[in-house]
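Supplementary Text 2. Reproducibility record for the structural model of the 196-residue chain.

All settings were left at their defaults, and a single model was retained for analysis rather than an ensemble. We include the record here because the model underlies the residue-level annotations in Supplementary Table 4.
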Amino acid sequence: MSSDENLIVDAAARIFGDLVSPSLINEAEAGIWPSELWAMLEESGLTLAWGNETLGGAGIEVVDGFSLLREAGRHSVPVPLAETMLASWLLGHAGVQYPAGPMTVAPTKINSNIILGPDGILSGTVRDIPFARVTEYIAVLADSEAGKVVALVKTSDCVLREKQSIAGEPSDEVSFDGVKPVNIEPAPYGLDEQAL
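Retained model, structure tokens:
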């Protein structure tokens, strides 16, 4: 374990130990957002752990991020930490500035297609988007006439159909039809849906 990894995991363990309790987990499962926990994770920089440092992320190695997520799993952390970290990784590779708040990513399946039209409007519906209903933004990998693009989308601009994963966590169907992204940048070479 590297010294950076130790610091990250130790900081995360302290936050999770102090704030994640059975009652907080039960409240989150009942739909109550754990705002104090999320604020602490954002303040500590853990939500953007995989994010590009030049854009405000922590820029930690992917392997160190997985150690952080193992610790989150050990404490049953009821927020989209992994999803926000992955969204920051995707946005950072395209040079898209990170918004505040929880994020998720789309698509999550290889055969799902989200299309960016020449008018800058998205179309497509994808299933199994983790925690979509509790996020503020979705980092989207979409197809366009010019190739793959990374788009930042406000979740409130989409139409959601709430569903659950086998673990009982939010895993929603999201329609991007008619949605204009907040920001769009070309995806870096080699970044495609198989990378997610």
